[in-house]
Structures are given as structure tokens and as C-alpha cells.
Design a protein that fits this description.
CATH topology: Rossmann fold
Structural class: alpha/beta
Order of helices and strands: HHHEHEHHEHHEHEEHEH
Number of helices: 11
CATH class: Alpha Beta
CATH superfamily: LmbE-like
Strand content: 5-15%
CATH architecture: 3-Layer(aba) Sandwich
Number of strands: 7
Number of domains: 1
Bound molecules: zinc ion
Helix content: 40-55%
Amino acid sequence: MKSSILPGQLRPVSHAVELVRCRSASSNRRPSPILRRFQQSHWYLQVRSSLLYLAFLLVAIAIYASTARAQPKVLLVVAHPDDEYYFAATTYRIARELGGTVDQVIITNGEAGFKYSALAEKYYSVELTQEAVGRARLPELRRQEALRAGEVLGIRQHYFLNECDTKFTLDPKEALGGGWDARSVRRHLRELMEHEQYDFIFTLLPRSETHGHHQAATILAVETAAALGELQRPVVLAAEPGLGATAPVPFTGHDHTAVASAAPSFEFNRSRPFGFKNALNYNIVVNWMIAEHKSQGMFQNDSGKHDRERFWLFTENPAGALDRAGKLFSAVNQQ
Ligand SMILES: [Zn+2]
């Protein structure tokens, strides 16, 4: 048999009754005199206002943290002033165009670069190619050059660890086995990573054919990040510049520097055209950055040499690293 009362008519009435019953029950409940005195006491009011303030503060921090995480926070860890070249265009995109934050740790003074300083001798009025002069004066000159190049790319803060740049070597153990104060470098990196809570660390791809200092800087960054608590760990990537016309050379790595895939996982195209008549590209920014390192004569020849920044993902990374890095590069590559 069908009901003569529509469902829509019944529900509001019973709901209203329920509400009245609840209100009436609570209004009849009176606190005891002892409880009333306690609720009016100075101590109680103070604790209550402190708890309310704390709750407000926690909500504000949570909102701030979620907003801050919307923009990537990146730390570059490199051996020499000018190594930022490897990810210069990606850095510019993140720091200047995506509203992210990029800091940089430069481990050595870069004074071994005196051999390439002939053209800069007149520019700086210093006989930089004389080894004793170059080693004495280049640390400060290269520091200033790195700061100016960092300004071009939008780097927020530089940390100079002032380790000696003795000479070119292919062996990372020369730096890690006593050439650098590796313990001090690890401590600086750990404190910085813990304090700043970076989302990503960019390093140089540690191929065995490349400068041992580059390899050593990357090893220290990967090891330090891996030793952090799971929730604090940034995603560590290694970069190598290349040419779009040439397939990247596969890389596998060893131990801590093993990578998720022999081919790069991500790429940014410096040559991607944009702007008026599609006449602009990010090689222009990279050239601005190169030009700041005037003491490094041979480095100036790298203008226009590479049009891709390729990134490998280390296997020694927190869960979800591929997804996190994927979102970053999706934003970086957005037109
Ligand atoms: Zn270098």
C-alpha cells in the first residue's frame, strides 16, 4: 500500500523535533558551583586563551606550509663557481619565472682556474695566470663572479664552503680522502637541508670521465640527503648538458650514485622558442650567466654549445620521488 505522506513532508518535522530536544537537553544542564568557579578562574582563562592561540598558530603554519610547497624549493650543490651552468636555464625558470626558491652551495674556491684567466688579467688588472697570484686572488674574484651569475639566474642565497681547488683530477677520492674537509662539508649540507627543507637537490652527473670534484660534490649531496629522515628528504637529481640532436650517453652510476634509469628521466630544452616572433630562447639567459665568469676564459666558449639540460634521478631517493620530480619538470617545461 502506498503511503499518503510524502517523504519530503515527514523529514523536516522529525528533524526539527530532534533539534529542539538537543537544545533543551543542553540548556537544562547547569555546571556545578565548583566547576563554575574553576571556569571563571584566571588560570583557566589564561590556559584557554593560550590553547586557542596555539590552535590558531598551528592552522596558520599549516596554511603557510601548504602555500610555500606550491613553489619548488631547490638547492644546487656544486664543486666550483660556474658549475651552475649545468642547470642554468632550469634554475632561471624555477627561480625567476615559477616563483620558486633556489639556493646554491659552492664547495671550493675555484682557484685552480687560474690557467684560463689570461683575458681577464687586463679586465681585473691582476696577473692571474701567475699561479701564486691567481691562487691568492681568484677565490674572491670567482666568488663575486658566482654572485653576479647567481643574480642573473635568480639564486636567493649562496653558501661558499671555501675548500681548496687544488687541481683537475678524475678521482673523487682525492677530495673525499683528505683534499677537502669532507666531514665539515657533510655537516654544512646536513644543517642546511634540515633547516631549509628543500624539495629538490640538483647535482652534476658523476660520470667517471668528469672532474673528480664534481663527482665528490654529488656523492656528498646524495649521501647527506639519504641520511635525513624520510619526511625531510629532498629528491636528488643529477644534471648534464647536451644537444637535442645527439642522444644522451647512458649512465648507471655506482653504489649511492646509481640512477633509476640509464636514460635521463627529465629534460629542459634551452632552445625552445618563445616571445616576439618566436625569436627568444633560454640560451640567451645561459649566455648572460656564462659572461659573468670572466676569469674563466675557456668557459666562455661554451656559449651556445649545449641546448638541453638533462636530469637523472638517483635510486637513493624517498618514495614518490619520480612523481615529485615529474610535477616539477612538467611546470618547468610548460609553455
Ligand atoms: Zn667545475
